[in-house]
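Duplicate of #3305? Posting structure anyway:
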């Protein structure tokens, strides 16, 4: 099923890959400003066409567009951020996506964003966005809060909204249920022996972890709980994405990773405590191993790989949404 896709804020191609896994043959026109993500996207989708920043895209220069996908920058909606909402510069870029939907009139569009969008400015921002989509005219709108942990061992809640023209089958895109209770054991169990490079040695991290027991089978992690700590056993993850926060310190994931962010400060406890590798972060987002290792210009640094994985949409979630789009719309 061939479709022309305008992939806005395209990152490393999570939407593109998810659509392909659902059976679509994607002819992509991708828009992104991060040079490393652009390079990785082109390396993995060599026939894609880069169309520059979303602010510069003119619909008259594009062919017929069947789908528009976008996970617009979310910092201004994030629960962990300053919550500027639609007034923030980053989140205001969604207006460019709305402009292009209005001009291109795709068969469907998919928008992904953080859970905090629901509560930003007491919900007013989310409903303003819904109103803007509705004002385009002709689109049925559906949305749901989905969690990556339904598919992969990462606790990552995101809003997925789909707009589409026509509904001859009478079906719906949502709800999507937790369809995979036996999540990918390869990701959970396939670990590598720690190297000195991978061990978490930061002063902040080590000062908040206390080993317990003669065989080091579990550790105590300072956390914002009534007890003041959480227990991590072998195979558990430890998040230190906000190591200097007084309210969000170490968080333990029981056989699951907490939400990956742009720094991917996630440790895992086995025989030692070590940071997740870039490959493991790729797996937690549903990408093949070493998806971000190379761009068209060569090797990509681990720092940039972590950043790109944290910014990505989860491929498996997109695939599930795309499968329902295919059944409902096509």
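Output from current build:
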């Amino acid at each position: 099923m061939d479709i022309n896709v305008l992939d806005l804020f395209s990152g490393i191609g999570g939407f593109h890959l998810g659509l392909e896994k659902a059976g679509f043959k994607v002819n992509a026109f991708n828009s992104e400003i991060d040079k490393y993500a652009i390079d990785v996207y082109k390396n993995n989708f060599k026939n894609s066409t880069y169309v520059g920043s979303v602010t510069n895209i003119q619909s008259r220069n594009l062919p017929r567009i069947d789908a528009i996908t976008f996970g617009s920058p979310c910092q201004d909606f994030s629960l962990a951020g300053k919550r500027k909402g639609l007034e923030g510069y980053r989140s205001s870029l969604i207006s460019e996506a709305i402009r292009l939907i209005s001009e291109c009139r795709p068969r469907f569009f998919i928008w992904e964003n953080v859970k905090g969008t629901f509560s930003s400015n007491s919900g007013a921002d989310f409903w303003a966005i819904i109103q803007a989509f509705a004002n385009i005219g002709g689109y049925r709108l559906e949305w749901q809060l989905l969690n990556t942990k339904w598919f992969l061992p990462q606790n990552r809640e995101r809003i997925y909204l789909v707009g589409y023209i026509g509904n001859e089958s009478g079906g719906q895109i949502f709800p999507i249920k937790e369809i995979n209770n036996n999540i990918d054991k390869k990701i959970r169990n396939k670990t590598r022996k720690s190297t000195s490079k991978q061990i978490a040695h930061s002063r902040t991290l080590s000062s908040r972890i206390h080993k317990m027991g003669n065989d080091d089978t579990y550790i105590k992690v300072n956390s914002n709980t009534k007890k003041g700590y959480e227990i991590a056993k072998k195979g558990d993850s430890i998040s230190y994405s906000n190591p200097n926060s007084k309210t969000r310190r170490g968080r333990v994931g029981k056989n699951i990773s907490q939400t990956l962010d742009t720094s991917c400060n996630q440790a895992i406890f086995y025989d030692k405590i070590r940071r997740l590798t870039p490959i493991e972060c790729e797996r937690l987002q549903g990408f093949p191993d070493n998806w971000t290792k190379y761009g068209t210009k060569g090797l990509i640094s681990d720092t940039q790989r972590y950043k790109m994985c944290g910014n990505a949409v989860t491929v498996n979630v997109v695939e599930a949404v795309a499968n329902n789009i295919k059944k409902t719309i096509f």
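Confirmed duplicate; merging threads. The longest helix spans residues 315-329. The two ends are 9 Å apart (CA to CA).
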